[in-house]
Design a protein that fits this description.
By secondary structure, this protein is an alpha+beta fold. The chain has a single domain, classed as Nuclear Transport Factor 2, Chain: A (Roll). It is 22% helix and 52% strand. A hairpin with a 2-residue loop joins strand 5 and strand 6. The chain is globular and about 40 Å long. It starts with a helix and ends with a strand.
Length: 122
């Protein structure tokens, strides 16, 4: 397993643990994060703040990496997740994250997913 795959797995694990502040150790200072409906955010502090806001919707959320496609310092992570929203509704989703790595840190993330899904709304 490459060091970039290990870094991507750690990224998903930290998201699932909702210990978002720990992402600071994985991110470059000038990280660029692109999220559907929000656009691009640049800077470690701003990205961590955005991820805290996104993850605050969830009581629980666990990610499972399904596959990786790597070319040099670029990595595509195919994932699925499942958990529970703070409203009590079950939630699941499938998507892809594009990650760029540099010197053992993440410099770019772009997320693509099918759509937010809750029970009864498939």
């Amino acid at each position: 397993m490459s060091s970039n795959v290990r870094l991507a797995k750690r990224f998903l694990h930290i998201l699932g643990e909702r210990d978002i502040s720990s992402l600071k150790e994985l991110f470059r200072e000038d990280i660029r994060f692109e999220y559907p409906g929000i656009g691009a955010i640049t800077g470690k502090g701003r990205v961590v703040l955005l991820l805290k806001k996104i993850m605050s919707r969830f009581e629980t959320l666990q990610f499972e990496a399904i596959d990786f496609v790597q070319e040099g310092e670029k990595l595509c992570v195919i994932w699925k997740n499942a958990g529970r929203l703070k409203t009590g509704q079950a939630f699941h989703n499938e998507g892809v994250s594009i990650l760029h790595m540099r010197d053992g840190t993440i410099s770019y993330v772009s997320d693509y997913f099918k759509q937010d899904r809750t029970d009864g709304h498939l």
